[in-house]
Structures are given as C-alpha cells and as structure tokens.
Amino acid sequence: MPGPLDGIRIVEFTQIIAAPFGGMLLADMGAEVIKIEPLEGEPWRLHSQFIPKESRTYMGLNRGKRSLPLDLKAPPSKEIVNRLIKISDVVIINARPDVPEKLGIDYDTLRTANPQIIYCDNTAFGRNGPDKNRPGYDIVVQAISGLLAADNKIVDGVPQQVSATAVADYATGIAIAWSICAALFARERKGVGQRIDTSLLSTALSMQGSFFELDQYTKDTRLEFLETIESLRTAQVPYQTLLDQQIELAGSMAGFKIYYNTYETLDGVIAVGCLSETLRKKAADTIGITDPRFDDNYDPNSTESISTAESLLSEAKTIISNKSTAFWIEQFDAAGVPVGPVKFIQELIDDEQVIANDMVVEVNHSKAGKVRMAGPMIKMSETPLEAKSASPALGEHTEEILLEIGYSQENIDQFYSNDVVR
Q1: Are 176 and 120 in contact (CB under 8 A)?
Q2: Which DSSP state fits 370?
Q3: pLDDT tens-digit profile of 358-370?
Q4: Using CA atoms, how far apart are residues 318 and 88, in angstroms rounded to an integer?
Q5: How far is CA 243 from the centre of its chain?
Q6: SS (H, E, C) 250-293
Q7: Per-position b or e across 68-101, b if 16+ CB within 10 A of its CB
Q8: CA dist., res. 299 & res. 306, Å (int)
C-alpha cells in the first residue's frame, strides 16, 4: 500500500541535520524527495567520510531521497529549479534569512512559479530580530535558549552541551515534517500554498516546560533573579556562582533524584524513573529504604528534608551496587516500577524489543552496500510508512531527474561539461 504522502514531491535545499531529518521523515511517508546539493556535496556528506563522498552522518539523515548536485549560482540552474518547482508540492530550505533571495530560491520567487507551493523555511533564530542573519548550530542554540544552563553539566567551570544528540536539530526536524503535513492538509481544504517558518531557537524553547511566567506569582522573583545575575556578571564572578543562583531560584531537586536517577549495579548501570508518589513509594520499598518524607506532615522544603534526601540517595546507591542488573530489573519489574539497563547504541540493532517492533530496517546503498538502520518513527495501519531506499550517492539521480523535467540528453551533457550539475 502507498504511504500517506504518496504523490507528493518535495524539493530540498538542505544541509546538516534539522531540515534533512525533516525531509527524511516525509520520504518515509511516501513523498518523493529531491535533494539539491552543492556540486561537491553538502557538508554533512563530507563529515568523517568512510568512503569518498559518503559519511554515516549523511546516510542517517537522507534515506529515501534522490540527489541532484546543482550550482545554484550558474545561470542555467534558475531554469532547472523553476521546472522542478512547477511540478512540486513542497520546498524545504535551511539557511540564514538573507541567503535564499541571493540564490533566487526565496518564497516570493518560487511561489511565482507555483502559487500552491508549500515553502518550509528553517533558520537558527527566526526571520526577524537582531540575530536573524547570524549563523547558528545546535550547540549555539542550546546555549542561547537556556538548555545548556538547565542541563547543569559543568566541566572545568563551564556548562557542557547536551552532546549525545543534537536535541534542537532533531526536534526541529520533527517540527518541519509535522508542519508540512499540516500545510498539505490545509491546502487540500483551502486550495492555497503557504510559507512555514521553523527555527532551532523556537524548538529549543518549546522543549523546556519551565519556559513560562505566572504574572502574579513568579514575575517578581524572575526579575529579582535577573537583577542579581546582571550584578554578578558585572562583578565577573565564576559561572558556578551564577548557576547556584539559578538553582536556588528553581529549588532543590535532591528529594526527587532518588527516584529518577541512574544507579551502578554489580555488573552495569540501571535507570529508575518514578514520576508519581505511588511509584516512589514502591521504589523505596523495593530498594529497602525508609523515606520519612512520605509522611503527610513532612516539610519537603526544610533543611532537614534536603539532608535526608542526600543521605537516602547515598544509601540507595550502596544497596543497589551490591546486586546485579538482572536482579534489580526483576525486582523493580515485579513492583511495577519503571526501570531499564543503560545500553550502548551498538547493542540496539540486535535488541529483541527493537526487532520485535520492526524498528530496524535494511536498505541497500549504491556504494556502501547493505545498511541496517533505525526505520520510520511511526506506524500507520492503512498507509504504511516505508524506508524506500538508502541515502543517495552524490549525483546518483542527476540525469534521471533532468530527463523527467524535460531536458534532452544533449542539454544534460552540456550541463555536465559546464559544471552546472554533477
């Protein structure tokens, strides 16, 4: 059965993570995605290559697409793009706001060729404001958005990025795919295309549940915090002093940490996650600790409470470290407490749970051969998603695409000889 976006054609002017990931999600839904790349290949293709022009980072973000390397500054490229846009439904682009117009691929230009085009424009900081034309990657947005400070991971006195994955980038990729699906639905109902603006900064703010203000309850405290922080920065104090002020404002999380934490076992590490009082009580009983804070009369904000939490955390660590991972998973499972072992990503390709839910797919790459990788994120019963193909080799589909949009073989040969395409 065809996917939910079967028949939709998407043209990508994308690179690195966020927008390519969004395009890949749409390709899994059945859309035809044509990726316009620089002649040398987009930067992520060239990052840590394992064979020429191929990298794992690129392959993991561009599954199911076709590649058309194109020199957008070459005069013939304008006509090539124009022909593509006339028969396409969606454009995805990620660049500084000033770049698309310089290249002739901005919304106003492309909607002249196709008024029903849906144009998703992803930037780092948004299209307006003092930072609109600044370049920005995930680590910069993590810093500016408050994510780095919130993570509270300090090394050598400075906060460290959330480094396991590019959180703002990947989440923005999901926002790109989500918004394009909504715009396609709106076009079906109203018959009009539109521009979509997404940004890494907006995504990073939306992911932080504490980013709000209660005018009557928290505003004064926040303003007082800002005044204090400004004074401390003027005094050029170490970052840890600033962080301590933020922690004091947010309140101590020590009482919560026992029940939402990682623990070393005799032969590994487990993670326990309890987000309700009922689960926390079950976890305490399973570990074998007595937590007086479950008493209705106990003050969770008292100095005694914080001291008790620190003592109990140490006790829990000692108890759990004396038994195996398998033992504790069995015990917590029996009690209904959420628990799991800490695994390495390399283990997950053969993981029984992952395999049972078809979360790994196998595709064949024209140069790299068989590839096993994470498959489509979701399942749909009547319009199933599919990993149609591996990521494209650079220029793998150039001739094929140009023939489809009406160019002769003679035209195409001339484009190659003049370095318009590759």
Answers
A1: yes
A2: E
A3: 999 999 999 999 9
A4: 61
A5: 26
A6: HCCCHHHHCCEEEEECCCCEEEEECCCHHHHHHHHHHHCCCCHH
A7: bbbbbeeebbeebbbbbbeebbbbbbbbbbebbe
A8: 10
Rounded CA separation 286/280 (Å): 10
Mean pLDDT within 336-351: 97
Yes or no: say if 249 and 225 are a contact pair by the CB < 8 Å rule.
Answer: yes
Report how far residue 245's alpha carbon sits from residue 226's, in angstroms, rounded to the nearest whole number.
10
Instruction: Calculate ∠ Cα 334-335-340, nearest 5°.
Output: 75
DSSP letter (8 states) at residue 45: G
Give residue 202's Cα distance to chain centre.
13
Structure tokens at 391: 């990521």
pTM: 0.94
Average of per-residue pLDDT across 159-184:
95
- The identity of residue 205, as a single letter, is L
Write the CA distances from 416 to 14, 52, 186, 278, integer angstroms: 22, 20, 39, 67
- Please report which confidence band the pLDDT of residue 244 belongs to, taking 50, 70 and 90 as the band edges: confident
Taking all residues of the chain, what is their mean pLDDT, rounded to a whole number? 94
CA dihedral sign, ordered 114, 115, 116, 121: positive
Task: Decide: 243 and 152 in contact? Cβ < 8 Å.
Answer: yes
What residues are paired with 104 via a beta bridge? none
Q: How far apart are the first and last CA of the chain?
A: 34
Q: Which of 284, 120, 305, 97 is nearest to 196 (CA)?
A: 120
Q: Helix-strand-coil percent breakdown of the chain, rounded to 5?
A: 45, 15, 40
**Residue type, position 264, single letter:** E
- Taking CA atoms, 145 is separated from 149, 165, 251, in Å, by 9, 16, 20
Coil, strand or helix at 364: strand
